Amino acid sequence: AGLRRLQPSTPDAAEEIRKLIVYLENHAKQINYFQDLEDGYPIGSGGMESANKFICHTRLKRSGAWWVMATGNDMLRIRCAIHNGTFDRVFQHHIESTASSTRRRKTRKVPNE
pTM of the full predicted structure? Predict the structure, then answer.
């Protein structure tokens, strides 16, 4: 209702408001903040921002730490897995996928030169 009461100063602003109203109407079931709060779910971004700072910055920006761009995302995956309790499962998956790719390389026929 508040969006509908706005008095946009330009046609572009009016169009953006219209698009936002349509989006909110189409996603109303997914945006139920009162129920989420009642169920104990956070509705702000503070927890996610804090986790990002703790997991990413603590590892990648600590004094004396270094990393290369090619492996930075891998390091973040490991840090996330450690902190969300899935490290053993993730590491086991890595071992299995590495073993399976090694087996595939060994079974390929190499043409004679």
Answer: 0.40
What would the pLDDT profile of 46-75 be if each residue is shown by its tens digit?
Answer: 888 888 787 777 767 777 777 777 777 787
34, 43 contact by CB (below 8 A): no
Task: Answer whether 48's CB lies under 8 Å from 73's CB.
Answer: no
Residue 51 makes CB contacts below 8 A (sequence gap 6+) with 83
Q: Which residues contact 90 (CB under 8 A, 6 or more apart)?
A: 77, 78, 81
Q: What is the dihedral of CA 79, 80, 83, 86, to 10 degrees?
A: -110
Q: Which of 44, 6, 4 is nearest to 25 (CA)?
A: 4
Burial 47-80 (b: 16+ CB within 10 A, else e): eeeeeeeebeeebeeeeeeeeeeeeeeeebebbe
Tell me the C-alpha distance between 105 and 79, whole Å: 30
Q: What amino acid is encoded at 37 in this protein?
A: L
